[in-house]
Amino acid sequence: MAELVNKVAIVTGGSGGIGSAICERLAEEGAKVVVHYGGHADSANDVVSKIKDSGGEAIAIQANLSHSEEVIKLFDQSQQQFGTIDIVVNNAGTGVGGSVAETDEADFDKVFGLNAKGTFLCMKEAARRLNNNGRIVNISSGLVVRPMVGFSLYCGSKAAIEMMGKVLSMEVGDRSITVNTVSPGPTETEMFANSGDDPQAAAALSPFKRLGQPKDIADVVAFVVSDQCRWITGHTFQAGGGYV
Ligand SMILES: NC(=O)c1ccc[n+]([C@@H]2O[C@H](COP(=O)([O-])OP(=O)(O)OC[C@H]3O[C@@H](n4cnc5c(N)ncnc54)[C@H](OP(=O)(O)O)[C@@H]3O)[C@@H](O)[C@H]2O)c1
Fold it and tell me: Most CB atoms within 10 A, among 14, 63, 217, 224?
């Protein structure tokens, strides 16, 4: 029996590489899925079509997650469409490369504005609205444990959400809501392609000697939001193929 029948999931960045795989995986388990997107309506609509073609339910909703009023609108519209919210996967993310000396205030605002503030605003709405036994999953990065030169803003913003998620897990546990982090290692998506990282060198960091695929991450998220994972909260799952 599918795990998530009658559950409603919001996946931020559902138009992207890892996010679209998460949307499709949760829909496979029976969840009704809100495919959030930033700028790529076409990609989000493709994900919705795939889910609907397989007999599932999904809608696409645009929001700039750095603005609280847009995050509230995302959650309001999701509730209006599906009546309730059970699962929130905070997956939308961005990075700007460069040393601390090279990067500037605008870079900080861009990366922290989405990765840290956007995730915080979504956690806030999730904490206020989620049903008992709900699930909040934040997508971080293995770079928090294995930092790299030139990624200070990205690593710092991801470290922030890991800690905020841990604190939130203590605040919502009395409603049996879990808050966990899933940290991918190098995963074959547009973000990875644009990162300037050498794919072969990155693949060599895993004992499996390959890059992660979005489905590798989506399967971990499907476990974390399932009832099987009800006793684990405030935890970081390293989903990097042994990368860390
Ligand atoms: N790929 C990797 O190697 C890797 C490794 C570790 C962690 N991660 C993390 O995994 C998550 C997904 O990454 P990915 O590789 O799948 O990247 P991706 O394909 O570039 O997708 C990024 C997603 O974030 C959304 N987004 C970007 N800026 C936004 C904004 N200002 N407002 C709202 N949405 C915005 C994008 O929406 P639009 O395209 O619609 O604008 C897109 O759906 C990120 O949090 C990333 O940090 C990735």
Answer: 14
